[in-house]
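Sanity check

After download, print the first record. It should look like this:
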Amino acid sequence: MGLLDILLGRTKPVVPDLDRLFALPSAAVTLEAAASFTPTGRGAVCFATVEGAAFEQTHREVQALLDADTERDGPPVELSRDEYGYSWLVSQRGPDQLPLLVNDLHAVNSSMEVNGFGPQLLCSLAGFEDPEGRSLALVYLYKRGTFYPFAPQPGAGQRRDNALELRVRAALAGDLRVEEDLNRWFPVWGAPGL
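Expected structure tokens:
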């Protein structure tokens, strides 16, 4: 970054570091101890929908790679679209298989990145729940290289449990690179995998 960039207020974009996803299993231990949330075994990668043969080929390769795993519990990897037009590649593992789920999420992100679809990647998430049935997602922002918690309030429509999100942020500050800008804690209402 040069002096002119500093004077004009330009910032260097953050380079995504997909290896940060591998911190999720240790963060899950902290999350369980601090707030009684355990992994659900569900996770997903969100990306802007892309049309074309190259993307379809990449999607088929990723799905074949993940579906070939003989240790998979639950349904095969599936592709879905949300009401906003974004695509989600959803993986289901056993609740005790968070490291394998993280491998799935990393493989999807890496494959899309290698095939030139990195700019379409938006976020990845891993689902958690507590004994009371409340849901929580740890969301990885691809373009920022940071995580944030998303906690929808049960039975409250599209309302978030902000107090829980802040408590989770404080608990995981030593385990994950948590997004500091709260304006970037985007809601992922109805996200598959949550």
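If your output differs, re-run the checksum step. Summary of this record's structure: The chain has a mean pLDDT of 87.
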